[in-house]
Specification:
Helices cover 33% and strands 23% of the residues. The chain has four helices and five strands; from the N terminus they run βααβββαβα.
Length: 145
Amino acid sequence: MNSIEVRRLRPDDAREVGKISFSIIGGYSQDEFQKIIEKQALSVDDVSVVAVKDNQLLGYCISYVLPVSFGMVKSAWLALVAVHPDFMGQGIGKILAKEVLKHFHTLEIVNVYTAVKWGSTDLISFFKILGFQRSDFVCLQKNSV
């Protein structure tokens, strides 16, 4: 897309990131989510970016680096990729994810992971287009209560 700026996430982006996320998912505390985003924006080691056009935040990609984890060497995770509903289907998510993946490449991080619910066929297709495939890991869950 023309004239879209991709830049690092900043703490003052947290409110708009929260609005986008809530418009897609809903059902959680926007204030709590915004605090998480503000903290993520201050991280030096992690890579998170936003897409902006005409001073409007269109989407974001939140990721983080894991120095070690259960027998893996340094790896990275794409935690969240989201685009404002009014701008979905225009390739913005792909632009954001590719920018983060390019940065991981410069850091010589070979393995990049993400997690998607089985029923989210649109997200699974999105990540397959980016070159993701099933990994050797099994996602496990335990309820804490």
